[in-house]
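User: Show me a protein chain along with its predicted structure.
Assistant: Here is one chain, sequence first, then structure tokens.
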Amino acid sequence: GGAPVAPGARAEAGGDGAVSKERSDGQPPCSVYAVSDLHTDYPQNMKLLREMPAYPDDAVIAAGDVSHQLSVMKETLQILKNKFKHVFFCPGNHDLWLHKDDGCKDSFEKFAKLQALCDELGVHTKPRSVGGGVVVVPLLAWYEPGFDSDPDVKDDS
């Protein structure tokens, strides 16, 4: 698999997981990084995030499991916003766990609060161009093997 690329463009995935695209407008390519399971509830993970270098021309996708606490989520997203030009977020299961300080009656209310937080901070949760013909499309989709009753597809070639 790979990231979709505009026709005629060349995309490369480096060893660091970033996807870069040569741009026809002469500007440097925007790299798109993806991270997940940051779990910044743990102080050592938050410390690593704070110490991470900035990539002010690039984009990052925070693909879930950041924190179950809204206050920690806000701090984490603010740090990412200070380090990247574009920040995208897709919640994971941990992000929707209820926490006594969140004041949410259920995970649907928690999801609405996360969306509002992202809107407040300028964190993208909907499709958006990052330049050079590259569009990031955050998806809300979780996989639970117990829901999949179809037999596995086997390739015997």
